[in-house]
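Hi R.,

Here's the chain you asked about this morning:
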Amino acid sequence: MFVRVYRTLMALIETNGPAALGIMAVIGVLFMLLGGVMFAANSSSLSNAEATEATVVSTSIGESVNPDTVGSSYYPQITYNYTVDGKEYRNSNYKAGSGRRVDSQFWAEGIVEEYDKGEAITVHYTPSEPSNSFIKKSMPMHPYALFAFGLVFLLPAVYMLRPYFNLLDDD
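And here is the predicted structure, written out as tokens:
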């Protein structure tokens, strides 16, 4: 999909010149802003997270089927109970953010094998929203990917707009 958008923009550049380059630069900035906002939100939830003890209730491998792709993706499903301020919660988020990362079955099996039913583990939760918890305290990759994708649009657009900036300076 992204390749198709990029090719369409390149065709627009050939026919519309600086206007299309400006649109391309704006799209790049928007993707970079989205990545930055997602990074800030995830960073905030990770840095403010508090740790508590939890008990693993069950482990399994979930399957995610996307009709647009061939094959399935898999994710570890580690369900755990934990208590915050006397109230019990149940969750199955492995990572911060959406909580679910899909990958190969081999990857998911490797994660699930690390946890046994009844095992005590450390989970992290958001103090303002204790029901929001996760096991692994690491930054998801999608904010970085969105920012990088924005750069793919912005940098070539700015580079190709240079001759038009020189025309403005000659006034």
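One quick note: The mean pLDDT is 83.

Cheers,
M.
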